[in-house]
Amino acid sequence: xxxxxxxxxxxxxxxxxxxxxxxxxxxxxxxxxxxxxxxxxxxxxxxxxxxxxxxxxxxxxxxxxxxxxxxxxxxxxxxxxxxxxxxxxxxxxxxxxxxxxxxxxxxxxxxxxxxxxxxxxxxxxxxxxxxxxxxxxxxxxxxxxxxxxxxxxxxxxxxxxxxxxxxxxxxxxxxxxxxxxxxxxxxxxxxxxxxxxxxxxxxxxxxxxxxxxxxxxxxxxxxxxxxxxxxxxxxxxxxxxxxxxxxxxxxxxxxxxxxxxxxxxxxxxxxxxxxxxxxxxxxxxxxxxxxxxxxxxxxxxxxxxxxxxxxxxxxxxxxxxxxxxxxxxxxxxxxxxxxxxxxxxxxxxxxxxxxxxxxxxxxxxxxxxxxxxxxxxxxxxxxxxxxxxxxxxxxxxxxxxxxxxxxxxxxxxxxxxxxxxxxxxxxxxxxxxxxxxxxxxxxxxxxxxxxxxxxxxxxxxxxxxxxxxxxxxxxxxxxxxxxxxxxxxxxxxxxxxxxxxxxxxxxxxxxxxxxxxxxxxxxxxxxxxxxxxxxxxxxxxxxxxxxxxxxxxxxxxxxxxxxxxxxxxxxxxxxxxxxxxxxxxxxxxxxxxxxxxxxxxxxxxxxxxxxxxxxxxxxxxxxxxxxxxxxxxxxxxxxxxxxxxxxxxxxxxxxxxxxxxxxxxxxxxxxxxxxxxxxxxxxxxxxxxxxxxxxxxxxxxxxxxxxxxxxxxxxxxxxxxxxxxxxxxxxxxxxxxxxxxxxxxxxxxxxxxxxxx
Length: 757
Hints:
Helices cover 61% and strands 4% of the residues. It has 37 helices and seven strands. The strands form two sheets. Strands 2-3-4-1-5 form a five-stranded parallel β-sheet, sandwiched between helices. A two-stranded antiparallel ribbon has the order 6-7. The termini are far apart. The model is unreliable at 234-243, 672-689 and 752-757 (pLDDT under 50).
């Protein structure tokens, strides 16, 4: 089920490759795929022979076992390999060798010999690692497709996922009458997600549907220590390793070297995935040198015991599938290493937190622990403040990650516990300062101001300038949240004096931008404009994209208040080219451009952009700050009243259909002004060549003379991702050199200036 693409790929590959090896984790369905492929071959096509190797443990007997399976008799005085070669000869045959991983080396030698002497023989092997025979083609058999996290409870939509279809089919065979409906579809989908779409695991869980409620199955999967005992009860007639998942995993585990087994079990504590540095910190020791970890990770990946995660980051991340991790955790507990390994995790996480130890505004720089959120949460769940002195600090860091990711409820729960359990002095004003910012996110201005005042009071007694600056900034944000704009301005003037004395230009520029934003709310847009002209050059040169985007947005809002609409539009457009297109950061510049359109009298465009942003905010479950939101809503309300009813309805409907690249293209005026256009590419000007917004920004930075690495630092991307964007730019524009791209950008810029002039 769900293997049509793999079957098609198999047919194609075996026409061009004489050795094809199916690899993948135990229980993923390699054997079943190979057998289904063989069954689908026309009878006249070739002879197919299946040799199952799971019961064979002696590599010396491999050739004899293959010969016996092919009904080739032994001949006195001749080796089994020679007899096999003669028996196959130049016949057109397909040989399927199933489960080669425990005999990888003897299998590789036998296969190489057979392929060398039997010109029309093709071999399909299944193994949990590649055999590394010259000419081998490896096809990794992945897990079954899963429903997306936001798929809801629609059975029709969920059944598009292969894992869900398999679960329903197997469950109905054990429990006649079982169907997928809105009452159980979310639970079934979550069971399949917890099992990572691993074929055998989904089947075994589905067979429990005849005896257990689905909610109990899901609860059993939540407990890693009992998960494997739940996943039992396979076919009695199948191989022992397939009767229950633990046996399938144990089969792979026994083939590992002792050091590989140690690393495999220690990785179980890293539930959120890991990179090489994390694995070294957690798994090295007790006879395993740190420099060996990378090689062991590569070996575990080759043997399908960890999987590589996709992504743009230059640092490769891996993870263990849920069922493999449950098995590894059992082995870790049995080894007596669980407590020590968890201590190593806490030490590693504390080291990551220390990287941001000298930040003036730690809540606003991007926590180094953001990518390790799940590992951090799991580590804290397994310990307490009584067990480890670093516990409160790490709880604060987890709350900070939730705040940065706009998850105020989770952050509030953690911070409330910290404020209740400790007097807070060990963490200084950082704790109430972050709690004040979270209260702003939760639209609780009274609580935010109270916490902000507590943070400032604590930091004044500590005489810690950076801590005081952070507390003043947090209280100012709380006062803005409550509408006390003049008081917020006073806080930020003091904050700027403190930060300037620290001699940190980027932090000074960042604080200046905050002061300009507060002045704008207080009616001081002219002073705000002067301040932004001072801080923007520094932020353009030094700041990461998130800070630069926020400052450009403030500058755009200031220019809008001054009535300089062209300048405001250019600044909002620049923000839109910097931020990730799929995140909430892109919604602020879209709303800014809606304001520009409303002030310019283009009511239809204003309503379109606002509705598109509002729809996206509903999908992302995020809201903007109250002052900004109020201004946007008031302007759009005026725009609506300025449109006839039919035009207003058309604009609302069109805006709600705009999303992704299409929304960015419309907002940047880089495609047709017709909201019914749905293509993803973004046209630049009137040219038929098309670039996305991100590709166009890469082209602009190439024209500025930046290297790929410099562009990546500016945009928050890896150099490899920049290179990918640049390849697409070259292909779309038909240009090979960076000079050609720079000239093209210059020509477009000159044309745009002539048009605006």
